[in-house]
Write a structure and sequence with these properties.
With 337 residues, the chain is an alpha+beta fold. Strands 1, 2, 3, 4, 5, 6, 7, 8, 11, 13, 15 and 19 form a twelve-stranded mixed beta sheet that branches. A five-stranded mixed beta sheet has the order 9-21-20-16-17, with no helix packed on it. Strand 1 and strand 2 form a beta hairpin. The N and C termini lie far apart (49 Å).
């Protein structure tokens, strides 16, 4: 399935719903489940639907394999354009709704550094060789799960940066709670995969890393996700060819590059002596030239960015205007310079 979170307008204001993308249409999975249970003469179909196929992705992930099975059955049941028990729309055209990030509020965000050529390029810019420790374990930083934006949303340009950048990544979504997960068992803990744009304030990030801390403010302001989550039964985790387009012009192509550390290894490492929960997000890091930093080529306000991952979709965003221009240098007086 291709799972989406979408927003519809109601008399009481916008409402978020969980859907599945099929043939340029979006099926409301919670309402579809209610129709399925009603057709089977099962008692309290709406309550059963809210339990087995809740109207948000986190709720569905919490339901585990059983919830995913019920969601697939509900999607298969809807073939035309039926209405819900109160006349609700069950099927929408994609241009009738607003797509949000598939996982608008991840429970956690860990972003890895898994592509060897990108890691080597960073070391070369510092006139170093890649540290041997990089090959001993997959490393990551913990990002901000509260700054998620969706497809077609504007990427905010923080006032404190002069070098805003993108990073084309694929993220795995944890679908099953686990602690000390073995690599061999890790695929069973992955619900699916999403395109992620790890937006980066490169000048601030550089300052943080020179101080052997971070990244924090260099990353925490925005991460874009979308357009959908492709479930693990539909995609095996091998990263397809990735293409970056800015204002319609190709900037970069991955040429089939794969990460040195695969998703099962990353998940297993993150789970050691720590519990991963459904809805945790694990980013891959970008491939070499999957960001402006690797190319010394920089996005500008108003640019349209397209991150094309073939079967995983195309994540489109526009770059916002700088919010003022105050550089983040904190004085002892407590004011920013």
């Amino acid at each position: 399935m291709k799972l989406v979170t979408f927003e519809v307008s109601t008399a009481l204001g916008p409402v978020e719903r969980l859907g599945a993308w099929r043939d340029e249409r979006i099926v409301d999975l919670n309402l579809a489940a209610g129709l399925l249970y009603k057709s089977g003469n099962k008692g309290r179909p709406e309550e059963r639907a809210n339990f087995f196929v809740p109207p948000c992705l986190l709720g569905l992930l919490d339901g585990g394999d059983e919830a995913m099975t019920e969601a697939r059955l509900s999607l298969d049941f809807v073939r035309n354009e039926p209405t819900g028990p109160r006349g609700e729309r069950v099927v929408w055209m994609d241009d009738e709704v607003r797509l949000l990030a598939p996982l608008p509020r991840p429970r956690g965000l860990r972003d890895f550094f898994a592509f060897e050529d990108h890691a080597k390029a960073g070391a070369a810019r510092r006139k170093e060789t890649l540290a041997p420790e990089w090959y001993e374990q997959p490393v990551f930083y913990k990002g901000n799960p509260r700054s998620i934006i969706g497809p077609d949303a504007e990427i905010p340009w923080p006032s404190f940066t002069r070098k805003l950048d993108f990073e084309f990544e694929i993220a795995a979504v944890v679908g099953k709670e686990g602690r000390d997960v073995a690599v061999a068992n890790a695929p069973r803990h992955i619900a699916g995969y999403i395109i992620m744009n790890d937006c980066s304030a490169r000048d601030i990030q550089k300052n943080e890393m020179v101080c052997r801390m971070g990244p924090a403010k260099g990353k925490d302001f925005a991460s874009a996700l979308g357009p959908w989550l492709v479930t693990s039964d539909e995609w095996n985790g091998k990263i397809p060819e990735l293409t970056v387009r800015v204002n319609g012009k190709e900037w970069s192509r991955s040429k089939g590059a794969q990460p040195y550390w695969n998703f099962p290894t990353m998940l297993s490492h993150a789970s050691q002596s720590e519990t991963l929960l459904p809805g945790d997000l694990l980013g891959s890091g970008t491939y070499f030239t999957g960001c402006g930093l690797d190319m010394d080529r920089w996005i500008q306000p108003g640019d349209a960015i397209e991150l094309d991952a073939g079967p995983l979709g195309v994540l489109k965003n526009t770059v916002g205007k700088p919010a003022g221009q105050t550089h983040l240098k904190y004085k002892q007086t407590g004011a920013y310079a």
